[in-house]
Amino acid sequence: MLQTGFTRASLTGYTGFKSSPYTEGALFYGEKLVDRSAEEAVSAQTPQLEEPKTLECPPGRT
Amino acid sequence: MAPGLSDQEAALIRESIRDKYSRVAASGAVSCFQYPTGQEGLRQQQYPLDLIRDFPPSLIDSFLGVGNPFSLGPIYQGEAVLDIGCGAGFDALLAARMVGPSGRVAGIDVTPAMIDKAREHAAALGMSHAEFRVGEAESLPFPDDAFHVVISNGVLNLTLDKARALAEAHRVLKPGGRLLLADMVLVAALPPELAGKIDNWYQ
Hints:
The complex is a heterodimer.
Chain A: E1 6-20, E2 23-32, H1 36-45
Antiparallel strand pairs in A: 1-2
Chain B: H1 7-27, H2 38-44, H3 57-61, E1 80-84, H4 90-99, E2 104-109, H5 112-125, E3 130-134, E4 147-153, H6 162-172, E5 173-186
């Protein structure tokens, strides 16, 4: 999501719905920046984008 | 072409996904999914049941979502919302209820039978501000900056080029617009005998 331009991108949690022992539903949020200049300003001031926040709650718990 | 797939593999996956969801549109979701669907899925994901009391049973039964994207934030009256992979229209029509007649909702899906169902459901509810069309997440048939909100529920994992699908969602959002996404993710490594199998896409 960050690579495609979203800001405030985050994995906010898991839903508890599993389609296999290896896969589970998850919820993601992101926003499109208000304007290009803001995007460029953030890019210029951000040495390295952080990875999206993960595992605030472990798989299997909503 | 989808990353890491031959043209033939990509075509097989697209055709098989369309076949699966055509069958679901014709016969229902029973035994097609490992997780609760329909009313039970909605209850477990804590959907706002007060907003869907008049939804026809066939629309309730059509819910196949893997989560509740509406739990990620409010949708306001008058907003424009796009549902990518709308199926028979449940989430899109719930969004249409939230935005009201002053807003508008568009739903796209790769399965024509699902779009037919969604149009029937919208007509049954008198929701003329919801429109549905066949389309792909990787090439959305909408102009730039068209929507306040993009939602999607259990669909991005089925797209062959996820980066392109996300870029398209970003393109059609207005500046300041929100992406509310529920989807399947890997939570454990696939065993070697399953990793890379084409039919993982549409089982």
